[in-house]
Design brief:
The chain is α+β, with helices and mostly antiparallel strands. The protein has a single domain (about 5-120), classed as Beta Barrel (OB fold (Dihydrolipoamide Acetyltransferase, E2P)). About 20% of the residues lie in helices and about 35% in strands. The chain is built from 4 helices and 9 strands. The strands form 2 sheets. The chain has a 6-stranded antiparallel β-sheet with strand order 1-2-3-9-8-5. Strands 4-6-7 form a 3-stranded antiparallel β-sheet. The longest helix is centred in the C-terminal third of the chain and has 9 residues, at about 115-125. It is globular. One of its GO terms (cellular component) is cytosol.
């Protein structure tokens, strides 16, 4: 299932703009399924400045450790503190309660260059 209202990266992160103008992101359902049971999530601190395409954290599962890549440029406004105690939320609800970070972005076309749902579906179906 690939929600149509989100944008995606080739590294399997999703991003949406919130009503408050923050860019919220997490990992896709495809990514969490490939990782298996998530046991730990390392997220950037509030105030950290992220650069699109750069590593900003890690997701550890019973199978492996995978990098999280920032899908947009900006400063971390919020991190999902609930994942400290319940990292498995990413498995259960990757597009909802399993969000990772909310980023304060500078206007413009923040989501430009990211994949549409159809483009992301094509990417993962070729995997």
């Amino acid at each position: 299932m690939v929600p149509n209202d989100l944008r995606y990266t080739a590294e399997h992160e999703w991003v949406r703009m919130t009503a408050s103008g923050l860019a919220e992101f997490g990992i896709t359902d495809f990514a969490q399924a490939a990782l298996g049971d998530i046991v730990y999530v390392s997220l950037p601190a509030v105030g950290d400045v992220l650069a699109a395409g750069r590593t900003c954290g890690e997701v550890e599962s019973t199978k492996s450790v995978s990098d999280i890549y920032a899908p947009v440029d900006g400063a971390v406004a919020e991190r999902n503190e609930g994942l400290d105690d319940a990292p498995e939320t990413v498995n259960a609800d990757p597009y909802g309660a399993g969000w990772l970070v909310r980023v304060s972005v500078d206007g413009g076309e923040v989501l430009e260059g990211l994949l549409s749902a159809a483009e992301y579906e094509a990417l993962i179906s070729a995997s």
